Amino acid sequence: KIKLKLPAVKIGSTIFVLIIPLGILVGYFFSNIKGFVTSGSKGVLTPINKLFYVAKVNGVGISKGEWEKMLKARYGKNATSELIDIYTVKGELKKAGISVSEEEINAELAVIEKQLAGQSLESLLAQQGRTLSDFRKDISLQVGMKKLLSGKIVIADADVDAYIASAGATLEGATEAEKRASAKKALVDQKLSEEINKWFTDLQGKVKVENYLE
Q: Which alpha helices (H) appear in 40-175, and where do they start and end?
């Protein structure tokens, strides 16, 4: 059998390691002394249990370590990949000096809510396990990428004419000018989406990523 030789530990380090958890526990006891008076030892043990467990089933604790291990196994790679994408985009927008205001985010949200035809955006997000705050961050990145790449989009009059001919009565607008504006916006959105996808694909090949979960 291979024996591991453990390095010598200075007594000062050992005391320091022991004092920190003890300090945390003492802090919890004192901060919850009122709970002890009103509900007995259970009032004190509840916050202490929260330090080590995410839940208990018939008194058996589910440890935070076990919970984190399951989260990492099931969602770790996907969550890490998503965060890498977010930080990749944020880094490029920062380098380009592009910022997005709350007003710009609100304007984009107003457009989205209009398309929902009375449905609650927050309810739809809740069904996906997301919050409006999370969604606003996504919108911020989307608006930022539009600002970065919109200068590359050119729509010719012939493209607008062709779009109007194909879309017909589905276009918004009462007048010819309003319909042309709707057609042009739809074309801009379509080409922007294509440009963003191309830009991001190219960016993924250039950015340096160190993924420690792989």
A: 41-52, 64-71, 77-95, 102-115, 121-127, 132-149, 157-167
Q: 144 and 89 in contact (C-beta within 8 Å)? A: yes
Cβ pair 197, 146 in contact under 8 A: no
194 contacts 153 by C-beta, under 8 angstroms: no
Q: How confident is the model at residue 193 (pLDDT cuts 50, 70, 90)?
A: very high
Region for 40 from its dihedrals, namely left if φ exceeds 0, alpha if ψ lies in -120 to 50, beta otherwise:
left
Cβ 156 vs Cβ 184: under 8 Å: no
Query: How far is Cα 46 from Cα 175, in angstroms, rounded to an integer?
Result: 66
pLDDT for residue 4: 38
Three-state DSSP at 83 gives: helix
Torsion of CA 182, 183, 189, 193, to 10 degrees: 160
**Which residues are CB-contacts of 51 (< 8 A; sequence separation ≥ 6)?**
24, 28
Supply φ then ψ for residue 60, to 5 degrees: -95, 120
Residue with tokens 């609650």: 120
Global pTM value: 0.68
**Diameter over CA atoms, the chain:** 86
CB within 8 A of 125, min separation 6: which ones?
131, 132, 134, 135
